[in-house]
Amino acid sequence: EGKKVIRLDVGNPDFPAPAAVVEAWQEALKGQKTHYTESRGIPELVGALRAYLKSKSHFDAKPDELVVTVGGRFAVYAAIATAVKEGESAMIIEPAWPAYKEQIEFVGGKAISVQTSLEDGWGPSPEKIEERIRPNTKAIVLNYPSNPTGKIVKPSLFREILEVANDHNLTVISDEVYDSYSFAPCPSILEGGAERFILTSSFSKTWSMTGFRVGYAVCDGRQTAEKIAMLASLMYTSVPEFIQYGAIKALESEEEATRNREQMRERIAIACRELDRIHGLKYYRPDGAMYVFPELREESFDSSGFADSLLNENAVSVIPGTGFGNYPRCFRISLGSPKEVIVEGIRRIGEKIA
Ligand SMILES: Cc1ncc(COP(=O)(O)O)c(C=O)c1O
Q1: What is the average per-residue pLDDT within 269-298?
Q2: What's phi and psi for 292, nearest 5 deg?
Q3: Which one of 36, 72, 136, 243 has the minimum C-beta count within 10 Å?
Q4: Is the CB of 323 under 6 A from ligand 1?
Q5: What's the domain range around 295?
Q6: Distance 106 CA to ligand 1 centre (A)
Q7: Are residues 316 and 230 both part of a single domain?
Q8: Residue 1 falls inside a structural domain
Q9: Is residue 201 domain-shared with residue 98, that is, in the same domain?
Q10: What is the pLDDT of residue 227?
Q11: Hey, whose CA ends up nearest to atom 16 of ligand 1?
């Protein structure tokens, strides 16, 4: 109480949003871009996104296959709601961002989890995935680079998973919100291989625009995109018009995206260097994203109690591994704060564990 807390919990990068985005947004406001828009997004932003995806992933999205959404979070929800109905199931690879399971359950589905482990480098086995598929399984959610582990699967493994999905008519929901923070070759669903897919992505991490609430979904066809646009229309009509004008400028802000990526690369290196000093702590060196997910292999270690006590006594907040699946010996450190803060936070974690 009364102490300033070192926040290593939320996935909120502290980098400023690109200046061009803020300017475009201000201009848009002055120019009265303050109205409802098409639910799937203004044509200028849809067009800019298509050009962006073409140059980045060589993917030719048709205008009616793309929907601008309120954050990547809504894109994921809409993808799940479109692919999974009440009484059906969808697979998730754990540890996983908790919203996948919650959203699947919210639409009345069952989340089937495939566990991965630190010993296996957090890589899922296609055999294990196939074993767990049920007749009512309709989708599989993939997320590389992964929150919370920072894992990026090798493109060959990614393709094997897509083959399993195709064999069982699953829709692959590929959540690629962290793709710009990739420090190893990161496969994208847009490179092909999946018969049914929905890509979800966001402006939040790449350009540090979490508060703008703008993301998008790219679908394998018009019908799915129409459903997602209909859901957007039912829920919130459209992303605010001026926010969409700002987002167009983000797509041109390559310098900022590169700066953010390089800073995140450096933060990962620093966090790993500091974690290496802590005896007994093991972790997978992240290939991407903005987190480290260490594990303390001690029978008595309970990450929930640890996180509580770390917050109350040491003023550092982390997220216990149980938030991401059955991982009571792990906890997640977010690298959204400046280097000095990360170093001090990990120093206190070390003190606590010693
Ligand atoms: C894996 C993953 N997907 C999607 C999101 C959604 O981000 P946003 O709604 O800000 O685009 C997050 C946010 O932390 C995330 O970690």
Answers
A1: 96
A2: -125, 145
A3: 36
A4: no
A5: 6-15+255-353
A6: 17
A7: no
A8: no
A9: yes
A10: 97
A11: 147
